[in-house]
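note to self: dont lose this again. the chain is below, predicted strucutre after it. 83 aa total, dont forget to put it in the shared folder this time
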Amino acid sequence: MQTVETLAAGWISVNDRLPDNENSFSNDVVLFWSKKHGFAMVGCYDYEFSNWTRLPWERGYQSLSFDDVTHWMPLPERPPACR
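---
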């Protein structure tokens, strides 16, 4: 079970590593911290364009530059009832 403390300890600096790209057709969806906005967002890192894309897409393409994001973490596990 993941606790708030476990999740807080799970942030990974973009200077240490970036999310894995499991295949060439899609990027891993993660939680990332936007220093530009001051809160976490769900999205992915786009290796092709070297930027972060916020999900869901609202009014088209929403991206943040590489420098706008400081940390990321994998999404938490699904609730037990949803497995």
